[in-house]
């Protein structure tokens, strides 16, 4: 039997653990066309949850249209618009109908049409000048509204925090909001991980998206949900593991879906050859950290000397009392203002997050640092 745990990015189906309540909650929002801000720390499972919900919709409520736009890596309004165009086939997969829709709805648009060989669906890549951007966006949003008159639509903007970094972010946010507000039969899900950017966008009174969406922080998965899921997948391969060991694994990886999924992937491989022993967790963990060695080394090499010292400060003091004189002396930092500055830049890089106290976001990076610096 093939390894049922998943090594790749987004998981659905049997590799997807529980999140029943989250699926039900978000479906309610979708049905009510209530916009949602879905946020969490990195790799908590936002994209997987969305993909799972889209699959459910396809199977159980195909009358709802789904559009998923991944904004990761976009650096301009133009790229934002292009990404939406490229996904339009999710709402209209018939090439002729899609072309007709575009012709009738969008002025001044020249575009390339290609057929995605994997899904056999048409992909639209528009070409337009920066000066035409507003008009194209207006027409594109009108097209979405038109489609939503026929059926309910859910549109996900994943990694929505990218918008904040665009050159004319302020006016783009305002423009986008003005259209979105008019779309009464569309549920927009704004999803992302850089909490400080996203919450500033939706919770600051002076921002365009202020109170435009219901806040939905995505939490880690509870132990009681992991156990039956893990047990079931291991049992499928005739691998029996005691409940106590499964609890130990979940605890060791602090209930974090990504580490648990990955760890179980390797544990499955290991247990196909040998039986459980006391050293198995640390043995697999060390090899997982070793696989990340180059990535972490590059990350470390790219930090300034004060950022390195500050990261050590967080590590050694477990994120607490970072400004105490002895703590600063221990890592040889001269002033507290250096720490303040570096904490900010490390947060911007998403290396640390403030969760009451500062924590190193990637559990494996934390373990790697403890071993290597
Ligand atoms: N419900 C789940 N059950 C099991 N594993 C999960 C679940 N959700 C996420 N994972 C694991 O966590 C990893 C990260 O998930 P995903 O990419 O969906 O998170 P994300 O919050 O969108 O991350 P990012 O912040 O990087 O966009 C997945 O590759 C998968 O291994
Ligand atoms: Mg994601």
Short description:
This protein is an alpha/beta fold and 373 residues long. Helices cover 51% and strands 13% of the residues.
Topology, element by element:
Elements: H1 20-31, E1 36-39, H2 46-60, E2 65-70, H3 77-87, H4 95-105, E3 110-116, E4 121-127, H5 133-150, E5 153-158, H6 169-180, E6 186-192, H7 195-203, E7 214-217, H8 223-236, H9 243-252, H10 257-273, H11 280-291, H12 293-301, H13 305-316, H14 325-330, H15 336-348, E8 352-355, E9 357-360, H16 363-372
Parallel strand pairs: 1-6, 1-7, 2-5, 5-6
Antiparallel strand pairs: 3-4, 8-9
The SS-based structural class is alpha/beta
The CATH architecture of the largest domain is: 3-Layer(aba) Sandwich
Range of strand content: 5-15%
Using the coordinates shown, work out and report the CATH topology of the largest domain: Rossmann fold
User: How far do the termini sit from each other?
Assistant: 41 Å
For this structure, what is the CATH class of the largest domain? Alpha Beta
């Amino acid at each position: 039997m093939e390894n049922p745990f998943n090594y790749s990015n987004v998981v659905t189906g049997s590799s997807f653990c529980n999140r029943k309540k989250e699926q039900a909650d978000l479906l309610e929002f979708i049905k009510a066309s209530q916009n949602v801000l879905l946020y969490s720390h990195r790799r908590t499972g936002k994209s997987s949850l969305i993909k799972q919900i889209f699959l459910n919709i396809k199977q159980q409520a195909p009358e709802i249209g789904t559009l998923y736009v991944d904004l990761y890596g976009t650096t301009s309004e133009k790229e934002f618009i292009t990404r939406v165009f490229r996904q339009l086939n999710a709402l209209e997969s018939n090439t002729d109908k899609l072309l007709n829709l575009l012709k009738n709805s969008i002025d001044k648009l020249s575009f390339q049409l290609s057929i995605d060989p994997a899904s056999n669906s048409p992909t639209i890549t528009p070409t337009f000048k920066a000066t035409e951007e507003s008009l194209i966006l207006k027409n594109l949003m009108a097209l979405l509204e038109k489609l939503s008159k026929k059926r309910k639509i859910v549109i996900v903007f994943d990694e929505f925090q990218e918008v904040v970094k665009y050159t004319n972010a302020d006016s783009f946010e305002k423009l986008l909001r003005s259209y979105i507000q008019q779309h009464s039969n569309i549920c927009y899900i704004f999803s992302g991980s850089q909490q400080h950017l996203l919450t500033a966008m939706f919770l600051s009174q002076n921002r365009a998206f202020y109170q435009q969406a219901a806040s939905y922080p995505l939490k880690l998965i509870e132990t009681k949900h992991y156990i039956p899921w893990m047990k079931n997948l291991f049992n499928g391969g005739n691998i029996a593991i005691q409940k106590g060991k499964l609890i130990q694994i979940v605890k060791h990886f602090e209930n974090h879906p990504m580490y648990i999924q990955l760890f179980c992937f390797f544990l499955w491989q290991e247990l196909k050859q040998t039986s459980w022993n006391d050293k198995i967790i640390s043995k697999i963990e060390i090899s997982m950290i070793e696989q990340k060695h180059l990535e972490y080394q590059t990350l470390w090499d790219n930090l300034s000397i004060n950022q390195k010292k500050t990261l050590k400060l967080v590590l050694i003091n477990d994120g607490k009392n970072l400004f105490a004189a002895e703590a600063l002396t221990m890592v040889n930092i001269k002033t507290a203002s250096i720490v303040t500055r570096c904490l900010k830049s490390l947060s911007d890089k998403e290396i640390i997050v403030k969760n009451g106290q500062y924590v190193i976001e990637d559990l494996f990076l934390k373990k790697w640092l403890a071993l290597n610096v």
